[in-house]
Amino acid sequence: MTTSSSDAGSSKTAAGRQPGDLRAEELIERIIRVDHAGEFGAVRIYEGQYAVLKNSEEAETIQHMKEQEEVHREKFEQLLADRRVRPTVLTPFWNVAGFALGAGTALLGKEAAMACTEAVEEVIDEHYQHQLEQLGDDEAELKETIKKFRDEEIEHRDIAREKGAHEAPGYELLTTAVKTGSKLAIWLSSRV
Fold first, then answer.
1. Contact present, 31 and 191 (Cβ < 8 Å)
2. What are residue 86's phi and psi, to 5 degrees?
3. How far apart are CA 47 and CA 19, in angstroms?
4. Are 121 and 160 in contact (CB under 8 A)?
5. What percentage of the chain reaches a pLDDT higher than 90?
6. How many angstroms separate the most distant Cα atoms in the chain?
7. Which of 67, 57, 48, 45 has the alpha carbon at shortest distance from 119?
8. Tag placement on the chain: N or C end, fewer CB within 10 Å?
9. How confident is the model at residue 172 (pLDDT cuts 50, 70, 90)?
């Protein structure tokens, strides 16, 4: 939905941009590109966790979170096509890295898998909140999509905490590494 400049009280995406800041179109392209990459990676993380923990009491929870991430990924795939945005060229890497992260942490135990989930979802919560602050009323539909998906990511984070994320061996080291990797993945995927 597009609003005209005469709409009282409306805000425009990138309205307060400074020299060197992205134009609105560039910002939207980056948002769609990076969010697609993130949701693609999230599906792969949960697929890796499920491959290892499919016979555990966490299997149903992991499957539920994976299904929500698949809906998110499909929506961003649709937005890539509708808005003619190029996906990140790093998709093949995220395919392998996401699965490896999910399976690797699950091999350390269900608590480590949940610590991975908690760490990733904390970063995504902040990432989506930042995007919501950047988008104007002229991107109301995209904002609503991101808000809905952010709420579900927060739900995943909370589930991971309830399932014992803090009990993971080396919790601080593990979550710091996962958060750092997630932030790097966001930076790279929005640009490459």
1. no
2. -75, 130
3. 42
4. yes
5. 88
6. 58
7. 45
8. N
9. very high
Q: What whole-number distance in Å separates Cα of residue 163 and Cα of residue 62? A: 11
Per DSSP, the residues of 81-133 read HHTTPPPPTTHHHHHHHHHHHHHHHHHT-HHHHHHHHHHHHHHHHHHHHHHHH
Q: What would the pLDDT profile of 128-169 be if each residue is shown by its tens digit?
A: 999 999 999 999 999 999 999 999 999 999 999 999 999 999
The domain locations on the chain are 24-191
Distance between CA atoms of residues 66 and 60, nearest Å: 10
Alpha helices in 12-90 (DSSP H): 24-53, 59-82
Q: Are 130 and 112 in contact (CB under 8 A)?
A: no
Token pair listed for 140 = 């109301």
pLDDT tens for each residue of 22-61? 888 999 999 999 999 999 999 999 999 999 999 999 999 9
Structure-token pair, residue 180: 């750092």
User: How is residue 93 written in tokens?
Assistant: 């890497």
Averaged over 97-113, what is the pLDDT?
98
Q: What is the pTM of this model?
A: 0.90
| 94 contacts 40 by C-beta, under 8 angstroms | yes
> Distance (Å, rounded) from C-alpha 127 to C-alpha 119?
12
Please give the DSSP secondary-structure letter assigned to residue 160. Answer: H
